[in-house]
Every structure is written in structure tokens, then in C-alpha cells.
Specification:
The chain has 320 residues and is an alpha/beta fold. It is 31% helix and 14% strand.
Amino acid sequence: MNPAPTAADHPENRMSVVAAAPVALDHLAWLEAEAIHILREVAAECARPALLFSGGKDSVVLLRLAEKAFRPARFPFPLLHIDTGHNFPEVVAFRDARAAALGERLIVRTVDDSIARGSVRLRHADDSRNAAQSVTLLEAVAELKLDACIGGARRDEEKARAKERVFSFRDDFGQWDPKAQRPELWNLYNARVHPGEHVRVFPISNWTELDVWQYIARERLALPSLYYAHPRAVVRRRGLLVPVTPLTPPAPGETVETVSVRFRTVGDITCTCPVESDAGTADEIVAETVLTDITERGATRLDDRTSDASMERRKKEGYF
């Protein structure tokens, strides 16, 4: 004989157990989730990290990811910029305004300070200071006793960067040895370092330039105006468009043209070149990026085209 039904058996009072359907993340959501996990790993494992913020597009994306990882709390690390002294004024102004809007601490260390200390010596006053950033960064790491520097480097930028781990170990001289990197099986990260050592952490290692621009478009992120098409005086040199500035004047015999251009990356003025473009919005840049077959650095960096300035050699010396 069946027992009499109770109130709990009434359909309105039963607790139904329904298996939750797995949520399928799209490509950008998956990359975002991975990067947020990495940022939280840094905060959990490292005692004195800093996020490298230049005002460029990749570091702007890092800031948005840090907001999603830690807001409404403050970031568990300061922002740090190594300024060559030859950065585009628009980018420096954007850097300061963005840090102020977020209410986060911004630390700036300059190559000029290293030159004044004598730790950086240039052959000529107008030499590129891009590689010299390594010295200033390592001095800042020692001064601030940092055990982690979070950067926006991506593996698709250049073949030497493709060798980096997400947590890239640096010895007590700040040097990188591609043969002595730690395994990251199953996305397990080892941030343990001895005093004087540190790690460089790259949360968007697995992103591409296209991913970055799609994310900028999706999140409606503000960027320095140089990233969008604008008329600019340039000269054609070694297959690149070199912007005409007081630091990069035209050489004898070169013809100055005004061309509609945009910058794919915004580094030191003396080695950063724009590309011809009419793309004035993030969506238009996404459409252009889909069709390009030249890497970001290959299309825009004078210093990457010289035989004595290989990225791998510079990274072994402490470069970003």
C-alpha cells in the first residue's frame, strides 16, 4: 500500500534538480577568462608585482582585464611605465589621464634618469633609446623590489616572444634564458623566486593582434588617437613609412609626403613607424587586420630590421 502523500510531495513544493547546461564561451570570452585567471594568480603568488602600463593598446587591454579581475577593490599592484623620453606626447598624455581616471598609482621611471646616473650611455644623443629601456626597467625592479612585472607581450608579435612562457623567469641579473624556463603543464604556474630574481608575466600571451582589436571594439576601449587613421608627414625608408619629427628628420634626398596612416604599435618615436590606412574605427581596423599577412612588429619597427638588434639577444639582456 502506497504511503499517503505529504505536503513536500506537492509539485509546487518539490525541489527540482536540473543539470545545468555548460556555458559555451566564445573565443574572446575564453581568452578573457584565461587572462583574468593569470592576473589573480599573480596577486595570489607574488609579494610585490607591478603592471607595466605604457598607454599602448595591449596595456590598455591589460587594464580592462585587471578591472574585471579585481574591481570594486583597488588593483593589488601599482602601474609602472619605463619612459624612453622619446615617447609620443599623445600617448604619454593618455597614460596619465587613464591612470588618473582609474584612481590607480602610476610609477614612471625614465631612461633620462639612467643616462644621468651613467648606467646608460648612448653613442649619439639622437640614438634610439628603445633597447636602453632594459637597464631602466631592471633598475626599477631593484629599487621597488619587484618579484613580478606584468606585461602585454604576445607570442604572435615576434619569433623570440613565441618562446616565452606565461610566467617567464628572470635570474638575479634580470636575464632570460629560453632553455631554462619552467614547465606550465595544465596551466599550472610557478612564481617562486629567490631574492633578486623575478618573473615577467604575460596574461595575453595567447592573444593575437586581431584578438586585441576585437576586444577593444567589444569593450569600447579608448585609445590614443595615433592608433586611428590621420594625415601625417612621412618619408619612405627601408620599406617603412618613417614619421617626420624633430627626432626623425628626413635624410638628404628623401621626399616628404603627407599620407593617411595609423600606428599598429606606439613605442619610441625613433624606431616606430605607421602604416598606410584609412581605418578610423576599431571595427575598421579589425577588418584590415583580418587581411594583413605582415606581423605587427615586422610592419612598424625600424630596430627589428637591423642585424645587431635581435629581439632574442635583447630579451636575454632584460628587455620586455
